[in-house]
Amino acid sequence: MTSEESQARIALLERRILREKTARASAESILEEKSKQLYEANYDLVKAVSDLEKLTVAVEQSPIIVLISDVRGIVEYVNCAFTDLSGYTQAQVLNKDIRSLGLLIDKEPMEGIRQVMENKTIWRGDIRGLSQTKQAYRLKLSISPIIDEVGYITHFLYNCEDVTKQKENEEKIFHLAHHDSLTDLYNRFSINGILQQAISSSERNKSMLSAMFIDMDRFKQINDTHGHKVGDELLQQVANRLSGICRRKSDFLARIGGDEFLVILTDIEDISFTALTAQAIVEILSLPYFIDEHELTSSPSIGIALYPNDGKDANELIKNADIAMYHAKNNGRRNYSFFTEELNKLVAEKNHLEAELRSAIDNQTLQLYYQPQIYLDDEKAFGLEALLRWNHPTLGFISPEKFIAIAEERGLIYDLGNWVIDTAFKQLKAWLPDTNVAIKMAINLSAKQIEDKRFIDDLKRAISQYNIDTTMIELEITESIAMKDPAGSIATLSELRDLGFELSIDDFGTGYSSLAYLKHLPIQTLKLDRSFIDNLEEDQDNAKICKASISLSHDLGLRFVAEGVETKGQAQYLLSNACDVLQGYYFCRPVPAAEAFAFINEYRAHTF
Amino acid sequence: MKGIVFTEFNDMVESQFSADMLDEIIVECELASDGAYTSVGTYDHHELIQMVSKLSEKTNIDADDLVYAFGLHLAKQFSVLFPSFFMSATNVFDFMRSLDSHIHVEVKKLYPDADLPKFTFDDSDPRCLIMEYQSSRGFATLAHGLMKGVIDYYQESITIKKHHIDGNCHVSFHLIQS
Q: How far apart are CA B97 and CA B115, in angstroms?
């Protein structure tokens, strides 16, 4: 080898060594970098393992049930929450089909699993389960897919929350919200919905349904006499009897008010089934109730409305059944009545009159007329009976019997009564400075008025507002009101008497008075019903009744008023039999205030 | 391009030609890396093209033939260095099919920056596997050599037919069993 060749070889080797050194340095640098990366990766890995361990413990001890299965449903992991709830051990669960562990994975969750597989989304739902000891439980379940890096589902993750208690509570709350707590029948809120659904279903099936509105007669009296406990017991027995009668799956029962029940009979082919059922209810609910050693009697009045004839929606059907019930009640109770077109018309008319009456009360277009009462022993003393009149702008004078009945039925009577008292007080107060005639104002009270808790306070307010001498006011209640609840009447009338009012029993002789009670009523006046006066000249019996009533009144120390006196003969007969006060067309019709005032001031002497 | 390709190329040049030849092409190519390759590094693939061209020029051997031969060499070396990839498949078709789904996935894990060619497969005919090579580097000939090397490894009787779709960047290989 020449020197040049040697040098070339050396140069080549030097270049090669240099390349090797450079490559080595580069490799070392890369390796160092890789080593650093490896260290960091290891650090992260150790931390991840530690985090994973914590997570594993958290999952293991979580109150939420965690189950992992493969795609066939074979369980690969389960935490304590599940073994605690189900009673199965880990060994009994692992590698077993998830459907063999008491979990009811039926149609709905299976469909959920199908959706999870298809859409790779989470499915949520509720399932039931049975523990190894046959304890039922409820789970809120979510199934989510575990997907590998290439997008295949490898496992399912089941997260379940034990909602047994929650569901039980929800069901309890739902039950409470939809049922009457006393009778466990449906309540008003839910029966409305049920009826509406039943109507929709009847509409589809072209079938009929009936709504029966049941009201228990005399329930209030039983409640007042025997107390709420007995009243409640009676309602429970009514509910039980109803449940015994209406046993079909398509019958629905509800208590919708104090003593009001609603029965919905769906899927009926003709009305005879409804009529038979109603008759059975009338008979069975009228049988005696034995409660706390009491034998109580009550009976139902039932109103029936049929779909589709009597109403298109739940409210209309219930309303019309209610109307029919009132009809049944007015027809003597203890019976049933179907809603009819006539009833409908009657109700429409009542509705119209009610609206007009409300507007008349608001606009003060009602009037008080006054009918003079002639005191036979004093020509300078008169009574004036305040009588409500309604002169409607288009319908003319509407009979008080008609509009007062509506006012009572539609809850207007209390306000109307207060208006009468206020107006009469005000009128009396206005008259006093202009006359030296003693005027006793007679005012009629209704049953609803004296039953109202506000009555006495409102009366006191009126006394104070008009500074009224209560001894110059005679409050009249009818005999039938007084005798409906004699003990209650005695208490209320005593309160009124304590305020100084004079008290009068109106329409005497028509209300089956108990003379024993009459004796105890704190009244000053007895007002014989006009029917006895009407024909006393022709009918000897009526004449004798008048005479006997006058005698009875005087024996009891009461003033006797004869109303409806229309002839001179009647007036003379009553005068000759020591009647105290006469009232009737023979003297004066009920007239507006000014005319009445003129009458008593211009009256000079008894001339009959 | 991964350094192993360069170190293997250099090894091949040195063993098949001479250390002098290797030194000459490195010096004359005036490579950015100065030819100081390490298998764990990453280098510009143009350097390989430069070296192949220079070798071709010096040896009067067609560059494509050189690259093809390098493919054969590389396949043989890979079977020694990474036997598990070869052992996990029992035949050429299986091995080829595992390229994209398995081998390249593993390579990516080791070298996240590796820019690998893309292969798509049509194996509807059990006797003919169609592989489409796509790479902006245009090393279809290298791929050809590698495929042949794999066929040699499994000692199967398979012929390869090439169809150029877009030069050497997009080529369809038909591997036909005979």
A: 19
Q: Please give the model's pTM, rounded to 2 decimal places.
A: 0.47
**How many CA atoms lie less than 13 Å away from B161 in the CB half-sphere?**
8
Q: How are beta strands A136-147 and A525-528 bridged, if at all?
A: unpaired
Q: Which residue of B has its CA nearest to A29?
A: B41
Inform me whether the pLDDT recorded for A523 exceeds 90: yes
Our measurement of the distance from residue B13's CA atom to the centroid of its chain's CA atoms, rounded to an integer in Å, reads 15
Q: Which of B20, B27, B41 sits opposite A27 (nearest CB)?
A: B41
**pLDDT given for residue A362 in this prediction:** 87
Cα–Cα separations (whole angstroms), residue A431 to A387, A472, A597: 17, 13, 8
Chain B partners of A15 at a C-beta cutoff of 8 Å?
A: 23, 26-27
Question: Which residue do the tokens 């890995």 mark?
Answer: A45
DSSP E strand boundaries for chain B? 118-125, 128-134, 158-166, 170-177
What's the mean pLDDT in A270-281?
90
φ, ψ for residue A368 (rounded to 5)?
A: -105, 130
Look at residues A590, A592, A599 and name the one whose alpha carbon lies nearest to residue A385.
Answer: A590
A30 vs B20, B36, B40: nearest CB: B40
Per cent of chain A over pLDDT 70 is 99
Summarize the confidence of residues A119-134 as an average pLDDT.
Answer: 93
Residue A250 contacts residue A208 (beta carbons within 8 Å)? no
Instruction: Decide: residue A228, CB within 10 A, 0-12 exposed, 13-18 middle, 19+ buried.
Output: exposed
Beta bridge partners of A388: A368
What distance in Å separates the CA atoms of residue A595 and residue A384, rounded to the nearest whole number? 12
Q: How far apart are CA B138 and CA B130, in angstroms?
A: 18
Mean pLDDT for the stretch of residues A476-494: 82
How many Å from the N-terminal Cα to the C-terminal Cα in chain A? 181
- Counting DSSP H helices and E strands in chain B, the numbers are 8, 4
CB B175 within 8 A of CB B100: no
Residue A215, SS3? strand
Angle between helices A271-285 and A228-245 in degrees, nearest 10: 140
Q: Which of B14, B24, B40, B47 to mutate to test the interface with A (most CBs of A within 10 A)?
A: B40
Would you say A165 and A137 are in contact if contact means Cβ atoms under 8 Å apart? Answer: no
Residues A587, A565: contact at Cβ < 8 Å? yes
Do A34 and B40 count as a contact with CB atoms less than 8 A apart?
yes
- The C-alpha atoms of residue B32 and residue B51 are separated, in whole angstroms, by 12
- Quickly tell me which residue has 């050809």 as its tokens: B144
3-state secondary structure A391-411: EECCCEEECHHHHHHHHHHCC
Selection from B72, B98, B99 nearest residue B153 by Cα: B72
For this complex, say whether ipTM is above 0.90: no
- A-contacting residues of B 6-65, CB under 8 Å? 19-20, 23, 26-27, 34-41
Which residues make Cβ contacts (< 8 Å) with residue B121, sequence separation at least 6?
B96, B97, B100, B129, B130, B131, B132
Residue A209 and residue A202: Cα distance in Å, rounded?
A: 7
Phi first, then psi: what are they for B32, rounded to 5°? -60, -35
Q: What is the CA radius of gyration of chain A?
A: 45
Residues from chain A contacting residue B27 (CB–CB below 8 Å): 15
- Cross-chain CB nearest to A23 (options B20, B27, B36): B36
Q: Which residue of A has its CA nearest to B31?
A: A19
Helix (H, G, I), strand (E, B) or coil at B15: helix
Residue from A24, A26, A28 whose CB has the most chain B CBs within 10 Å, to mutate: A26
Residues 537 through 556 of chain A touching chain B, CB cutoff 8 Å: none
Query: Percent of chain B at pLDDT above 90?
Result: 78
